[in-house]
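task queued by scheduler; priority normal; single chain, no ligands, no partner chains; default sampling; output format set to structure tokens
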Amino acid sequence: MKPTLFILAAGMGSRYGGLKQLDGLGPNGETIMDYSVYDALRAGFGKIVFVIRHDFEQEFREKIISRYEGHVPVEVVFQDLSALPEGFTAPADRAKPWGTGHAVLMGKTAISEPFGVINADDYYGAESFRLLADFLKGVEGEKNRYCMIGFNISNTLSENGGVSRGLCEVSAEGNLTGVTECHGIQRKEGKLVQTLADGSEAPFPEGASVSMNMWGFTPDYFDYSEKAFVEFLKEHGGELKSEFYIPSVVNDLIQDGTIELKVIQTPSRWFGVTYAADRQATVDRFAALHADGTYPAKLF
């Protein structure tokens, strides 16, 4: 059975100023998701599952899913504030989604095979999808075998402001031992810095491996994540802004020895639209990738 690609497309895109998941950035109006799906199919993925919000379902189906008809099976699941385990309800004033960990949980009913997880608004590169697909094909029928595609921090920066990245701690055997979320990472006067919680700046390690939210899981991840989400809700369910993230689940499973998570380094260069000012550079990069033959004139 071929692995599934699970695309997180429910984010609000607040810094970018709109639904960047639906923004046409390629020469023919292609979205970043179109390139991810194209690269995933070439790498050997056999199904695409999107998690979106109900409020833009019709537009999403018309602008995105219609492109893939006849090319790959597609399913849609929904992230909603009310999609909580029995006994829990969202605070009346909460508007913020529950986070990436909650978004992935929405795929439990649609996925029963090894699967990859990516963001809808990040360009990961064809080699990254090949590495992810190769790993997932090798763990079919197994449990507790996960991976993360690691990017060199220098290949993931924006020229228009600081970015948030998960700083990876990797063992000598190449396994993840922990992820620390870092914010405001950018290059200033030739040096990498990050912004700390108190607003001050500190050095960020050159050449570090960082997470771009490109994960590979076997289906047992859903059960572990469900249990972790219940514990999260017990502690933070009454708060308006706390979020349940994939790395928090992964870190706990690593620390208690439940899983092995391989960090697979990719040479690919990330780009995307973290800020509105990133848009033109992204348009130019896609135009160049079509011009040099990396992508055909028409993806689908």
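post-processing summary
- The CA atoms of residues 75 and 110 lie 7 Å apart.
- The domain at 4-150+211-243+273-291 is CATH 3.90.550.10 (Spore Coat Polysaccharide Biosynthesis Protein SpsA; Chain A).
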